[in-house]
Every structure is written in C-alpha cells, then in structure tokens.
Design a protein that fits this description.
The complex is a heterotrimer of chains A (about 240), B (about 240) and C (about 325). By secondary structure, chain A is an all-alpha fold. Chain A has helices at about 1-10, 25-60, 60-75, 75-90, 90-115, 120-130, 135-165, 175-180, 185-215, 220-225; one strand spanning about 240-244. In chain A, helix 2 (about 25-60) runs parallel beside helix 5 (about 90-115), helix 6 (about 120-130) packs across helix 7 (about 135-165) and helix 7 (about 135-165) packs antiparallel against helix 9. Chain B has about 240 residues and is mainly alpha-helical. In chain B, helix 3 (about 30-75) crosses helix 6 (about 110-135), helix 5 (about 95-100) crosses helix 6 (about 110-135) and helix 6 packs antiparallel against helix 8 (about 150-185). Chain B starts with a helix and ends with a helix. Chain C is of the alpha/beta class. Chain C contains twelve helices and eleven strands. In chain C, strands 8-7-9-6-10 form a five-stranded mixed β-sheet, with helices on both faces. In chain C, strands 4-11-5 form a three-stranded antiparallel β-sheet. In chain C, helix 4 crosses helix 5. The longest helix of chain C has 23 residues, at about 10-30. Residues about 1-40 of chain C have low confidence and may be disordered. Classes of the chains: A mainly alpha (about 240), B mainly alpha (about 240), C alpha/beta (about 325). Chains in contact: A-B, A-C, B-C. At the A-B interface, helix 1, helix 3, helix 4, helix 7 and helix 9 of A face helix 4, helix 5, helix 6, helix 8 and helix 9 of B.
C-alpha cells in the first residue's frame, strides 16, 4: 500500500526526482507520448483506411485483407521494435515504423470488413440511382461501416499506446516508458506512478475516440443497432472478431 | 618470465580469436553456429516456458469468461458491467499493467504477475465471443429443443453451446494469439518465456540472430496454436463443414 | 463479426508451422542440458552441503558467477548458480533472505548501495575495509577483492580528444553544453555520474540517456554524442579507438569485485571454500576480465563456457 501512496505522490509532484533536477516532468513525458502515439495512429490510418476501404469496395483480396491483422496480432511488439533497431538504428523513426507495422493491419482489416460487409442490396440501390463507385464508397459504404471502421481505429490506438510504452525497453527514450525502464533512478513507486499514467492515457484515448465514433455514426445506423439489441457501448473497445 | 607466469593469469583466446565468431562479432543477420550452440540451453527452455505461460493464461481466462458468459446469457444485466471492466483491463498497455501488479504482495516479480496480466487480456475477447455465440443461436432452434422435452440445462449443453462453438473457438484463437505475443513482454518482470532471449539480445546491443530466432519462434508458436485451434474446431463441428459445401 | 472466406491457406500455414516446431522438438531431444555439472564428487567439497551462488544481471557478473561456481564444482562442492537476479538491491535481498549464499559485488556498490555510506572512500583498500566491516556486522564476509576494477569512465573518440585537448574530465568544463554525453539512465542521478561531475568538476554536459550499454557505444561510434560513460572492463576499450578521461578527484570511485558470502555458508563449507574462491579472484586482472567480457559480449559465447576455458587454462578446473 505504501508503494501506491508513494506512486500517487510521485504523480502529484509531476514526476520530480530529487537527485536529478533536470529530469523531464510527467506532463512533458505524457505529452511526448501523446505526440508519438498520435503520429503513429495518423500514419496507420493514412495507410490502412484507403487500402482496406478500397479493397472492401471491390470485394477483392479478402483472404489477405482479413488475415493481415491476424499476422499483425501474432507479432511480438518488442521483437518488432528491436529488429527495427537492428536495421534502422535507435530513435523515433524505428518507433514510428514499428507502431505503423503493428497498427495499420488492424485498421486495414476492419476497414475491409466494414465496407465489404455493407448490405449488397443497399449498394445495388445506390448504383441504380446512378452513383459512381467513388460516391457509393464515400456516401453509402463508409457511413454504414463507421462502427467497424472505428473498431479498428480504437483497437489500433490501444496497440499504439501500448507499443509506444514498450519502445523504451528497446532503447527509445521518449514518453512515459522512459520512467518505467529506469527503476534504478525512479524506484518502484516512480515506475508504478508512470504505469498508472500510461493506463490513464490509454483509457482517455479510447474514451475520446468512442465519443468521436458516436458523433460520426449516422443516426440510422445507431437506431438499427439499437433495434437489433447491438447498441455500441461507447466506453467499450470493439474488436472485429473473425468467425471462421 | 617464470615469476610473471606465477603472478599473472594465463588468458586463453576463447575459441581461436575472432575467426570462429566472426559472424557474431559482425552481428550479421543470422549466425547458425550461435543457434546450434544455444538451442538446448537458451532457446528451447524459453519456448517451453512460453507455451506453459500462454496455455495456463488462456485456460484460466477461458474458465473465468465461460462462467461469466453463462451468467450474462441468463441475466442480461451482468453483461454491461463485465464488458466495461474487461474492456478497461484490455485497454491498459501491457507493460503498465505488469508494473501496476508488481507491488501487490502475493504477486511481485513472478510468473504469477505475468499470468494475472495475461488472463486479464484474454477476458474481453473470450467473454464477448462466448456471449455472442450463444445469443446468435436462432430462437426457433431453442424452441425446438424445448419442444423435444429438453430442460434448459440440457438445451444449453446439447444444443446452444455446440452451435455457439465456432464463435467461441474464434475467441479462443484471438485470445491465444494475443496472449502468446504479449507473453514476450512478461519477461520484463519474470525470467520466463521467449521474451528472455529477446531482452538479452537487446541488452547485448541488438544481437540480430538471437532476436530473429526468438521473435520468429514466438510468431511461429502463435500461428501454430491458431492452426491447431482451427483443426480443433473442424473436428468439433463437422456439421458446419457439411453446410459450407 | 465477419466470415473468414479462405480455408485452404491457413491449413498450409499450420502444416508448415507444425513441421517447423516438430523439427525443433526433434533436434532438441538429441542434445542434453549442460547446466548441471557431472564432475566427480571428490576433493575438499565432497560431502559438504549444497550452496547457491547468485549473480547480477549483466555479462561480467554472469562470468564472475560462473567462474566461482565452476571452480568450486571442480573441488567437489555442490553448487547451484542463480543467474541474472537483478540489481544490487534485489540480489542483496536474495542473500539476506537466504535464497542465495554468495554473490560477487563491486566494493563501491557495497559501500554506497548496501551500507548506504555516501562519503567517498580515499582508496580501493579504504572502500574495501569499510564495506567489509559493515558486512561483518550483518553476518557476511567480504572475501578479498580482484585486481581488476570496473569503474565508470568517461571516454571520447581519439580524434575528438586530440582536437579539443582532452585528457581529464576537468577539460570538459570548457566545452559546456556542447559536449553531449550518453549513458545508462541512472547516470543522471548518481554521484558517480552527472551529480559528481557537476559538484566536483563544474562540468554540466548535455545528457542522452540510453537503455543498454551496447546502445551507448553505438551512439558514440555513430557520432550521435561526443562522449559516453563506459566501464573500465568493457571489451570495446581494447580497440584503442577511444581516449579514457582521467578522474583526478575520484568521483567514479573504486569498483574492484569481491564476493559477499554468508558466514553460515563459510562455516558449513570449511576453509577450503574461501581458498578456492580467493584463488579465482586473485587471477582476475583487467586484461583477463576484458578478454572474457569480449568472448561473452562480442562473440556471444556463454559465460559458463568462457569461465570453464579460463579455469582450465589456469589449472583451477
């Protein structure tokens, strides 16, 4: 219990380290981590969303699109980070590359599944109205696929924050992982304090994305889900679950 | 000369200088010599521990999720709090969760801590898939079972659960693969599993051979376990294959 | 929820992975574990109770642990080696709780971490004696120290030293913040680190914390930083590429290695136990430990194999 109190005190003191007045503050490290994660998520979205959505629109390469995230899930993030170190050298680049390698497949698979799973009758109706492929994708399929698209984005975000924490074990010295990997200086209480901050940050990111999802989901989709008893709980992370 | 030899140690060359370990010294991508020398003392024990760590986590996770899922299937009110709680556990980054568990007295720096964390990651996935699988059983099937004179318990075990198997095993597959990947991080707090050689390789200045072999074993193990579960599902649900044809 | 449409490929992947794992299993059964020693149970250690030796979590400690363990086994003692226990605090805790009976420690660490004495010792002998008397009060014996010392040392590349006329850490003062030094993170908070540099020399460099000592060397070699905190026994120092800056005020202390043994173990194992350990320690000169570190750190050989070769060459095993 003492360790927990010390950890809370450590957080209250903004991560101050008596022996090292120049140590980075908790706020600084948290913001840094938010920045690293934000960039990782943004790049993953830029890579995964267009490819997944377009393949889903065309209904092509379904096996690859669906299983790419299974392979991604099997990759140990620590090993990805370390192998990146070996090839590219330590630094922010490796961290971001690893984040994208781990997160983009999840985004891609969910985008594919979301778009490909839109009721073909609706798509046919849109085509009958004379809509072009692009317009169908953008105006019909994407809005209907929002719940699954966001499932991917949210899972990816959770992965990115977790991996950004682990990056410190593989030599990168940014974010809150910096404290977690230096128990010598920060002792267990500091490490615990940083861990609590990481957990809080992850839950915050998850919660904000859930609210964004709710704001973006078309009213009709929300209603339909409620009728089917599948109301999407904004506080709960959703993962696309493959049913073989 | 003799006096020198008596005071100073004889320093061997340890394997004939740099030539025998040129690959290791240059840190090339893959040094087969290192793998064969360290397979039985480092890699194989780590792989075995990794399997044990993962199997225990998924087994305990399944037992807990199964119980909760049956409860939630009967009483809907249970579902939301369980999803919320397991969702929070699922969201907390692995390294942070390990560190949060370390100060708890009976856990500490041990495999128990690793198991608790790994189990908590499997709960959301398993619980949701079991509940969804049961809920997706068509109502008329349930009614038909009742009509044949089955008690609710009989209907659950003989009709509903078998029909929910594909969804349940899908959950077990994801949970297993996730746990196997996460178990590598567990070795930061307990000296077990394939994370041990991975951390060692990082400590040794990113020793590529060890990293690639240990990381590769973890991926192979995950894919292998996934494959075995697919085979298990096919064996358990022959009817779904017949229907697919 | 979605449906997996492919069926053929997963089976193929599974088959491949299974084949790989099975092949792996098959090959492992033909080799035997080499961790347990099968030396003849004769010599002064025969019939004495088993002893557990621990070591901390870095290569040099693994080598020291293996050296003592193998030398004792050669004399017939029953020894279990617990590798990589962790930091000084954790390993000492393992000793006081009776999980291990002995572990190699550095005399500066004995003083600052275990005894909590912050005043700098005047010499290696002073550090050793203070540590020894502290441990004696708690039921432990600090056996004689090794000739080598593994102290922190700030190093720079030779051309950089020449260009800026660097020979001692005192010379770093004129470079100010433009001198970037990389080290393990704890360098920031220790007296044998940035604190001592600032207080005793007025040197305040820019600091780049890195997670492992291998990364620290990489940072220096790639020019990311101008200097690093190295250790005097690092095998990399044998290359001659680096200039070691002297430490006239001795902030980096004295870090010869010395085994800490519980008095209970010493009493139970008899006088030959300490004699065996001391014979090993006496041989550990700087070139000897550097060569062994090179074999483990650079050549990735196992600490046990390296220790065995060294002991055999010196007729201790």
């Amino acid at each position: 219990m003492n360790t927990l109190l010390d950890a809370l005190r450590f957080i209250a003191h903004n991560g101050a380290l008596p022996a090292d007045p120049g140590a980075p503050t908790l706020v600084h490290l948290t913001l840094q981590m938010l920045w690293i994660s934000g960039a990782g998520i943004a790049i993953s979205l830029a890579v995964g969303l267009p490819i997944g959505a377009w393949l889903g629109h065309l209904h092509r390469f379904s096996f690859a699109a669906i299983n790419v995230s299974n392979v991604g899930r099997a990759l140990p993030s620590l090993a990805v980070l370390a192998i990146g170190d070996a090839i590219l050298g330590i630094g922010i680049t490796v961290t971001e590359v690893a984040l994208v390698i781990l997160a983009a497949p999840i985004v891609l698979t969910n985008a594919y599944v979301g778009i490909a799973g839109v009721d073909p009758e609706i798509v046919d109706a849109a085509r009958g109205m004379g809509m072009s492929g692009w317009r169908i994708l953008w105006r019909v399929e994407v809005p209907l696929a929002i719940p699954l698209l966001f499932a991917g984005i949210r899972t990816a975000a959770v992965y990115v924050v977790a991996t950004a924490t682990i990056a410190s074990l593989a030599g990168y010295n940014g974010g809150l992982g910096y404290i977690i990997s230096d128990e010598q200086s920060y002792h267990l209480s500091g490490v615990l304090g940083a861990a609590i901050c990481v957990a809080g940050l992850a839950l915050l990111v998850e919660g904000v994305l859930a609210l964004v999802q709710r704001a973006l989901t078309p009213r009709g989709v929300q209603l339909e889900n409620e009728v089917r008893g599948e109301e999407v709980d904004p506080l709960v992370p959703v993962t696309a679950v493959p049913t073989p | 000369m003799i006096a020198l030899a008596a005071t100073g140690p004889i320093i061997p060359t340890f394997g004939g200088g740099s030539s025998s370990y040129a690959c290791e010294r240059a840190n090339r991508l893959f040094c087969p010599g290192w793998v064969s020398q360290n397979w039985s003392s480092v890699l194989w024990p780590a792989l075995r521990q990794h399997v044990v760590l993962s199997v225990i986590a998924v087994a305990i996770g399944f037992a807990i999720s199964f119980g909760l899922a049956l409860l939630a299937y009967r009483r809907r009110a249970v579902e939301r709090p369980v999803i919320l709680l397991t969702g929070i556990l699922y969201t907390i980054p692995s390294l942070a969760l390990f560190e949060i568990l370390v100060p708890i007295k009976p856990l500490g720096l041990s495999a128990r801590t690793a198991e608790v964390a790994l189990v908590s990651y499997s709960l959301l996935i398993l619980f949701r898939n079991i509940v969804t699988g049961l809920r997706d059983v068509p109502d008329d099937v349930r009614e038909a079972a009742r009509g044949m004179g089955m008690t609710p318990r009989q209907s659950l075990w003989r009709v509903e659960l078998p029909l929910a198997l594909p969804s349940i095993i899908a959950g077990v597959r994801i949970a297993t693969v996730t746990v196997i990947a996460l178990a590598t991080v567990a070795s930061y707090i307990c000296d077990e599993g394939l994370g041990v050689p991975i951390f060692q390789a990082i400590q040794d200045g990113v020793f590529k051979t060890e990293l690639i072999v240990a990381g590769g074993l973890a991926v192979a193990l995950a894919l292998c376990a996934d494959g075995l579960l697919v085979l298990l599902q096919r064996a358990l649900t022959p009817w779904s294959r017949a229907r697919a044809r | 929820m979605f449906r997996n449409t492919g069926r053929g490929l997963p089976a193929a992947v599974v088959a491949l992975a299974l084949a790989a794992v099975l092949a792996a299993c098959g090959s492992s059964s033909s080799t035997t574990s080499s961790t347990t020693s099968t030396k003849a149970a004769s010599g002064p250690g025969a019939g004495k109770p088993a002893v557990v030796i621990g070591d901390k979590n870095f290569p040099e400690e693994n080598i020291l642990g293996a050296l003592y363990a193998e030398a004792l086994r050669a004399k017939g003692y029953k020894v279990t080696l617990k590798d990589n226990i962790g930091s000084t605090e954790l390993t000492y805790k393992a000793l006081t709780s009776g999980q291990i009976g002995m572990f190699p420690e550095y005399i500066g660490n004995v003083l600052s971490v275990i005894a909590g004495i912050t005043a700098s010792p005047k010499s290696a002998a002073d550090a050793y004696n203070q540590g020894k008397s502290y441990l004696a009060k708690h039921g432990y014996t600090l056996l004689p120290m090794t000739p080598f010392a593994d102290s922190d040392v700030v190093i720079v590349k030779n051309p950089y030293a020449k260009a800026h006329g660097l020979a001692s850490v005192v010379d770093l003062k004129k470079l100010g913040k433009s001198f970037k030094v990389a080290a393990l993170p704890e360098f920031a908070t220790r007296f044998a680190g940035l604190v001592g540099l600032r207080k005793d020399y007025g040197v305040v460099p820019s600091f780049v914390p890195l997670a492992t000592s291998a990364l620290v060397y990489q940072a220096l070699d790639s020019g990311q930083v101008q200097g690093i905190d190295a250790f005097t026994t690092d095998p990399q120092l044998k290359s001659g590429k680096y200039t070691l800056l002297s430490d006239p005020k001795g902030i980096f202390g004295y870090e010869n290695a010395a085994p800490i043994v519980s008095n209970k173990v010493l009493a139970a194992e008899g006088p030959q136990f300490a004699d065996t350990v001391n014979a090993v320690s006496a041989l550990l000169t700087l070139p000897a430990i550097q060569q062994m570190n090179a074999a483990v750190i650079l050549d990735k050989q196992s600490a046990t194999a390296v220790a065995d070769q060294f002991l055999k060459a010196n007729h201790l095993a």
